């Protein structure tokens, strides 16, 4: 509100989930039986993810201005967020007064083993990043933690001189290890927790979980490699 002494909310942070947020009891939701006993609680229910993703799509189309978009999806954790975001973008485009071309390419970044960052990022695939030259690029990611992985990817892409690069991340973690990188579009800002579900995995498990949940110690031990 104009003239108000209260600090305006920072919408660039997305939906902020505080450190003391207790989450939702698992018994309030349905989830795969094979994960019973492996989770602490539901951090973000699936329906809230869907609604927030729709709003992000509106913000992206408003900012980019109905220009053609090259979407670079970071696999594997980002695929579900990317698919849902793309569907919302297409729905908005259908009602636009001009056709908006949306092409999708994929890249894999490997930076975790079990629940620990390995420190160095491995880029798998995306050998022909030169095709991004002169394009409006939207990178779609699942989680930004320290920011180092995304900075490394951006550095690789910028060599090919795209017209524009924007980053949309479903989650951003508040962590003291952060280098300060912030995506252009953020779904949720969350505590420094290892979360699974909605295609986010722990050693390839939990991708079939619709909600974003916090894994417990039993689950980590059960699926450790």
UniProtKB/TrEMBL annotation:
It comes from the Eukaryota. Pathway: Purine metabolism; IMP biosynthesis via salvage pathway; IMP from hypoxanthine: step 1/1. Gene3D superfamilies: 3.40.50.2020. It is found in: Cytoplasm. Its cofactor is Mg(2+). Residues 48-202 form the Phosphoribosyltransferase domain. Keywords: Cytoplasm, Glycosyltransferase, Magnesium, Metal-binding, Nucleotide-binding, Purine salvage, Transferase. GO terms for molecular function: hypoxanthine phosphoribosyltransferase activity; metal ion binding; nucleotide binding. It catalyses: IMP + diphosphate = hypoxanthine + 5-phospho-alpha-D-ribose 1-diphosphate. Pfam families: Pribosyltran. GO terms for biological process: IMP salvage; purine ribonucleoside salvage. CDD domains: PRTases_typeI. One of its GO terms (cellular component) is cytosol. The keyword NAD does not apply. Its EC number is 2.4.2.8. Belongs to the purine/pyrimidine phosphoribosyltransferase family. PANTHER family: HYPOXANTHINE-GUANINE PHOSPHORIBOSYLTRANSFERASE, PHOSPHORIBOSYLTRANSFERASE DOMAIN-CONTAINING PROTEIN 1. This is Hypoxanthine phosphoribosyltransferase.
